[in-house]
Amino acid sequence: AAATAATAQPATASPNSGPSVEDSLLELQREREQREGDGVPMRSSSTRRSSDASSVCSRRSTLPPPGESNTWIMSQMEEFSRIKARLLSFHAHKGQVQDASANRGSVSGKPMAKCLVVHFHGGGFVAQSSQSHEMYLRYWAKALQCPILSVDYSLSPEASYPTPMEECFYAYRWALHNADRLGSACDRVCVAGDSAGGNLAMAVTLRAIHEGIRVPDSVFLCYPALNLNYSVSPSRLLGVIDPLLPQGVLQNCLTAYTGIEAKQFYTTDPFLSPLSATEHLIRKLPQVHIVAAALDPLLDDSVEFAKLLKKHNKELRFKIFENLPHGFLSLRGQNSKEISLANDLCVQWLKEALPQ
Prior knowledge:
The protein is of the alpha/beta class. The protein contains eight helices and eleven strands. Strand 6 (about 115-120), helix 2 (about 135-145) and strand 7 form a beta-alpha-beta unit.
C-alpha cells in the first residue's frame, strides 16, 4: 500500500524556532512597501480576476511507483499557520520533524544530510499541490539522499500575486533558519520547481539576491514559466493545438495569478516575470539548471532565459528533450524511454549540484 501523508504534531515554540508567521508576513508587507518606494515595479492595481481559472486544473494525487512506498517521511509541516509544506526524506535524519507511522520501512537516526532541496510545485498557479508531485519527488528523495521541503503556497485566483511568491520566499527563509528540524546541515541548498513552480523558484532566488539573504547554491527549473508578459512566440503557437496546455488554459492561469487579463498584461517586475530581471540581479544568480520540452508552449521562456544567462556569462546547464510535452516529470513510470532519460538526467544534475 502506498504511504500516505501524516500530520505532525505542532512543535513547541522555542527561541530558535524563527519568527512567527504573523511577524514574518508583517515584515514582508513592510519590505514590499519599501520596494515600491525604491522603485522596484509591482503589478498593476487592477483587481480583475478570471472567474473560471480555478476550474482549469484540478488537484490530483499520485501513487508512488512499486518499491517506493512505506519508506518515506511525509510530515505535513504545521510550523506555519497559513503556509503548508510537506517534508519528504528517504531516511529519518537526526532532529527531523516526522511521523513515525508513515515510515515503517525507513532507517531512523541517520546523521543530518548535508544538503536540502526546497521545492515549489507546478499547476498554473491555480491547482495541484506537493502531494500531486510525489511521483517524482519520492524518486528524487531516494536518489539524492537528502530532505525535500515542498511548499503548498496559496493558489490563485483566491490568492493572486504577490501572495504566493511571498509565501514561498518566507518558507525558503524559514527553511534556512530551521534546517536542523528538516534533517539537514544545509551545507548546500537548491531551490527547484516545475512550470509555475519554476517561476516561483527563480522569483525566490531573485528576491533573496535583492534582500541580501543567503542565495541558493543552485536553481533547478523544469519547463518553467519565466515570461508572464503577453507574447506571441513560436512555442506559444503550440497552445492552439496542445492538449496538455492549450492556449485558453495558459491565459486563464496567467490572468488568475496576475489579476489582469492575460492579453493586456505587461510588467517589469522580476519577481513576477523573471525574464524581466535586471542585469544587476542576473549577474548574482547561482548556477542554473533548466530542463525543457520541445513540445511545450512554454519552451521559448526557457530558451530566452538561457540566452539572458549566457549573455552575462552565467553558469548554465540547459537541455531540451525533443519528443516530450509539458509536465513530463509527472509522467514518470510510463513506458517511455524518453521520459525515463529525462527523469534520470534531472536526478544526475541534482546530484552534481548537491554532492553528499
